[in-house]
Amino acid sequence: MNSTIRAMVVLSIIFLFVFVFPINADQSCSRETTCIITEQNGNKIDFSVKNLATFEITVTIELPEFVNMKADVGLPFTASFNGNSNTHVFSIETDNPKKAWHYNYHFYWTFGPLDATHDDSVVYSLPYAPGGSFKVNQGFNGTFSHTGDNQYAIDWGMKENTPVFAARNGIVVGVKDSNTEGGTDPKFVNMSNYIMIKHSDKTIGEYDHFKFKGAAVKVGQKVKNGDLIGYSGNVGFSAGPHLHFFVYKAIDGKNRQSFPIRFDTEEGKNIILLQGNSYTNPAPAGFKPEKQQQNVLVREIKIVKDFTYKKQQGVRFEISDVTIKGMNKKEVRFGFKVEQGEWQDILWLDPQTVGYDPEVWKNGGWFFFPYTKFRGKSDTSQKYTGTFQVVETATNSVLGEKSTDFKVTLK
Known about the structure:
Distance between the termini: 43 Å
Shape: elongated
Low-confidence stretches: 3-8, 12-23, 289-301, 307-331, 342-364, 369-380
Mean pLDDT: 75
CATH class of the largest domain: Mainly Beta
Radius of gyration: 28 Å
Strand content: over 45%
Structural class: mainly beta
Number of domains: 3
CATH architecture of the largest domain: Distorted Sandwich
CATH superfamily of the largest domain: Glucose Permease (Domain IIA)
CATH topology of the largest domain: Glucose Permease (Domain IIA)
Helix content: under 10%
């Protein structure tokens, strides 16, 4: 989901008598981003657009009532404006100074430039770590919120604080990560945290719903495909933690055009992502997860090899001799990957903690869990050979892993 991205302001000016007016300026602003400045000098009014944002915007100005006046440009007027700019755009003046005259105007603005042309030969990278796999909760033309400007947006279900990476080279033109709240109440529509990246074809790639203070880049920074840009969240108009991404240009101040972009994945190259499917970001040959940070020390992970599960009862994987410095243990997750054995036999192990689904934590063949206590749903007995892994969640750094045989029995 994404926030509404345009605004409209209506002003009306009526003069019933003819005066010689001194110079007088007035300003009307929308969302602390776009201002229209009107400066009157006698019977002439000059219009200027002030863009208070760091990114390009497109503005449309309409004059639905325009009596005994003329403009020096065609109306309605639409143009794009660079960030942090103040630009004179046109003037209007009375046609017959001896008669009464009046006008009113509306203005609309939206993100992005008019002159972008999407390079359809570009294939995007998935915006998460190599080897990572996430489900598309809402795809192109999603009925919940992917209509209109967001027609070709993609939502990946993604737990909060997941690292987000640039899907394409570009320059960071917009960053907001000061908002803290989210939900489906309309009051959250314009409260998303976002990162905007301008591409070489002038289109904008927008990533939404970052956590509070979740940006890892700054305006003006050049980024390459695969660079870390921030950490996902659940801020703004959102039904749950996810990453919203789309690529667009402006059509006018009221509308944007999004593009049906394609991705390279483990499941296929140069493909359209389909709602309901999970997609894995290909890992380059020889890729290894980021090693532990300097403030993390893991001595050993000792696994108890035989586990006995009783139906609807919990059992703990015992992990010992693990020393973690400089972080909260709640930021560590535990996972396992079966290398020999019937994989499907452990798919139905659910974390006992309500609200966590093992599928959500699946990452390149690993199943991750926030806690180490599980319950079983049916009876089976199977011996496996697998690897157990502990990962620090903020960076996805591998803290340690151990390969072992283990036995799972459910009764």
